[in-house]
Amino acid sequence: MLNPKQIFTWWYRQTFGTFLKTLFFGKLVGKDEYGNKYYKNKKNDRWVVYSDNVDASKITSDWFLWMHHTINEPPNNDQKKYSWQKKHSENLTGTDKAYKPNKIINSNQKKKYETWKN
Fold first, then answer.
1. What is the mean pLDDT of the chain?
2. What is the pLDDT of residues 32-48, one digit of tens each?
3. What's the DSSP call for residue 38?
4. Cα dihedral angle (6, 11, 14, 17), rounded to 10 degrees?
5. Which tens digits make up the pLDDT trace of 71-111?
6. Rounded CA gap, 35 and 58, in Å?
7. What percentage of the chain carries pLDDT values higher than 90?
8. Residue with the larger pLDDT of the pair 104 and 49
9. Which residues contact 40 (CB under 8 A, 6 or more apart)?
């Protein structure tokens, strides 16, 4: 379903042009666990329609390989994952959940080195 915001904006899931391309030429190849839908056409062009806001870091590593023609077969969600593999997360920079190291040097703390002086 086309949202009226999509006619004039590109950052809301897909543009009007992508909507038409998907409607007329796109073949749904698969869907990942985050709801992103992956399409291709007869010329083997590949694209994604995001489930929410457009952010390329939302594409999982398996689908990233398929999108960039590294693998030909779309990933299978039933593939066994190893215990040491972490679950995919999007880039959280600029949010409250961004990574912040424990040891941040305050201006009151003494540096471990001294700068050169002229």
1. 82
2. 988 999 999 999 999 99
3. E
4. 70
5. 999 998 777 788 898 888 888 888 888 887 776 555 566 66
6. 10
7. 31
8. 49
9. 26, 27, 29, 46, 47
d(CA 77, CA 80): 8
**Would you state the structure tokens that stand for residue 13, as one six-digit string?**
């899931």
**3-class DSSP state for residue 26?**
coil
- 59-85: string of b/e by CB count within 10 Å (b at 16+)? bbebbbbbbeeeeeebbeeeeeeeeee
Round to whole Å and give the CA distance between 90 and 63.
14
Beta pairing partners, 11: none
Strands (E), the chain: 27-31, 37-40, 46-49
